[in-house]
């Protein structure tokens, strides 16, 4: 019997409960998928806790997964039963053993890519592509700052930026995470609990600052990230792990002609051509080894609550994925 993790009210991880579901035949433009690996992301935790009120309740959370096409709806071209696909969606519903999915958001997986890797890397990798190649186009010779450099997005972002020829300054919370960040391409790592990262960035750049600061932490680092920018530097706030950024006076940007962006991936992949182009770029750097990623640590789908606890308590040393019982 197909199962899904249902969220009926916001709260702690215990709000995630497995339930039996009916999965209909695909309608026009749709695929029916048997899912084999499901990504677990901080976005899911924000939805479950109520920080993001973007999933109508009751509903099935989850925005990333991979699996096998079981059936194809009318009018669908380019996919057939048996195809291996992955996807990222703002429409939720990924925490399930089976589902119906718009064919327009499905990506055929390269032969070399395991489904477990796809479920671990698609959201993070597409986010990195957006940040490095579109929001601020990183070029050789630039210097950038990446907060949480040892995190899931951070590791991909640092590797890719270094591959593009940028000098990467990363921040990390411990010596162990600093080693992870260095292995991911950081030329310099600042231990933000022991060091003033603003002062260190100024020292490392001879007072100039960085061309771009990538900040997924939010509240605790926003002002410092702005102070780290060089003239005409770009602050990219793409998360709020420490809480939302307080109201911001735009005239503060005028001191150094800085710019500020708050990008959302789903706006960048809304058009099919853009999604395919971004995915092709990601698949290329992964296949070439310029960016290294590992399949996530696996838990059964029924243990979604445990996965959220591990993620939120910072006990997860690798990306997490959920596996349906028959995967």
TrEMBL record:
Domain Enoyl reductase (ER): 11-322
InterPro entries: ADH-like_C (IPR013149), ADH-like_N (IPR013154), ER (IPR020843), GroES-like_sf (IPR011032), NAD(P)-bd_dom_sf (IPR036291), QOR-like (IPR047618)
Taxonomy, superkingdom: Bacteria
Pfam families: ADH_N (PF08240), ADH_zinc_N (PF00107)
SMART domains: PKS_ER (SM00829)
Keyword terms, alphabetized: NADP, Oxidoreductase
Protein name stated in the entry: Quinone oxidoreductase
Source species of the chain: Roseomonas nitratireducens
Organism lineage: Bacteria, Pseudomonadati, Pseudomonadota, Alphaproteobacteria, Acetobacterales
């Amino acid at each position: 019997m197909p199962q899904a993790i249902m969220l009926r009210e916001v709260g702690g991880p215990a709000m995630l409960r497995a339930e039996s579901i009916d999965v209909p035949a695909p309608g026009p433009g749709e695929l029916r998928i048997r899912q084999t690996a499901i990504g677990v992301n901080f976005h899911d935790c924000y939805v479950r806790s109520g920080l993001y009120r973007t999933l109508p309740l009751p509903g099935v959370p989850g925005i990333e997964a991979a699996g096998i096409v079981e059936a194809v709806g009318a009018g669908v071209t380019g996919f057939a039963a048996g195809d291996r696909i992955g996807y990222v969606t703002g429409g939720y519903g990924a925490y399930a053993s089976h589902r119906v999915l718009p064919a327009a958001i499905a990506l055929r997986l390269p032969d070399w890519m395991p489904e477990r890797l796809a479920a671990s890397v698609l959201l993070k990798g597409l986010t990195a592509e957006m940040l490095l190649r579109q929001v601020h186009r990183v070029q050789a010779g630039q210097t950038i700052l990446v907060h949480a450099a040892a995190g899931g997005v951070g590791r991909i972002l640092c590797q890719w930026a270094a591959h593009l020829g940028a000098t990467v300054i990363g921040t990390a919370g411990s010596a162990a995470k600093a080693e992870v960040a260095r292995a991911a391409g950081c030329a310099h790592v600042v231990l933000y609990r022991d060091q003033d990262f603003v002062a260190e960035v100024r020292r490392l750049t001879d007072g100039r600052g960085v061309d771009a600061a990538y900040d997924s932490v939010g509240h605790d680092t926003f002002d410092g990230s702005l102070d780290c920018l060089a003239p005409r530097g770009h602050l990219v706030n793409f998360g709020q792990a420490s809480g939302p950024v307080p109201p911001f006076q735009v005239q503060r940007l005028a001191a150094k002609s800085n710019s500020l962006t708050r990008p959302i991936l789903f706006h960048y992949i809304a058009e099919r051509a853009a999604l395919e182009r971004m995915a092709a770029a990601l698949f290329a750097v992964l296949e070439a080894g310029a960016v290294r990623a590992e399949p996530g640590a696996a838990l059964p789908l029924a243990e979604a609550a445990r996965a959220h606890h591990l993620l939120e308590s910072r006990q997860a040393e690798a990306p997490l994925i959920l596996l349906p019982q028959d995967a």
